[in-house]
TrEMBL record:
This is Peptide methionine sulfoxide reductase MsrB. It catalyses: L-methionyl-[protein] + [thioredoxin]-disulfide + H2O = L-methionyl-(R)-S-oxide-[protein] + [thioredoxin]-dithiol. The active site is at C120. Binds 1 zinc ion per subunit. The zinc ion is important for the structural integrity of the protein. Residues 9-131 form the MsrB domain. Zn(2+) binds at C48, C51, C97, C100. It comes from the Archaea. Belongs to the MsrB Met sulfoxide reductase family. Keywords: Metal-binding, Oxidoreductase, Zinc. Its cofactor is Zn(2+). The keyword Cell inner membrane does not apply. GO terms for molecular function: peptide-methionine (R)-S-oxide reductase activity. The keyword Lipid biosynthesis does not apply.
């Protein structure tokens, strides 16, 4: 069980940048091909920008052509939660951080093997930590 991070809306506004707040707390999205990680190739871990929860490994990242960073699986079953999203007249599966409930993006069933899933995630909701920094964290 993940220990939840709970903050007031004002606390999130102070902690996050404008775009980070709009995406993670207000369920927004960044325009396709605009985020810093959609075409990024570094090796390491993508963490939640709001609470630093480990979300995705670069080993599960792939180029979906969608314009957003895409992963075929989260780093662990406990790192993200999935919720039904009926906004904009569609039925989708929203992906949120299991630790702080930040909106990350959506998951679709058109990804590559081995899962067949595509976690389509907003760059602004992520903070990349290179593998060499992870090794020094101990």
């Amino acid at each position: 069980m993940v220990e939840k991070v709970i903050k007031t809306d004002d606390e999130w506004k102070r902690l996050l940048g404008r775009d980070e707040y709009l995406v993670t707390r207000k369920r927004g999205t960044e325009p396709p091909f605009s985020g810093k990680y959609y075409n990024f190739k570094g090796e390491g871990v993508y963490r939640c920008v709001a609470c630093a929860n480990d979300l995705f490994s670069s080993k599960a990242k792939f180029d979906s052509g969608s314009g957003w960073p895409s992963f075929w699986e989260p780093i662990s079953e406990e790192s993200v939660e999935e919720r039904e999203d009926r906004s904009y007249g569609m039925v989708r599966v929203e992906v949120v951080c299991a630790r702080c409930d930040s909106h990350l993006g959506h998951v679709f069933e058109d990804g590559p093997p081995p899962t067949g899933l595509r976690y389509c995630i907003n760059s602004v909701a992520l903070k990349f930590v290179p593998e060499d920094e992870l090794n020094s964290e101990g």
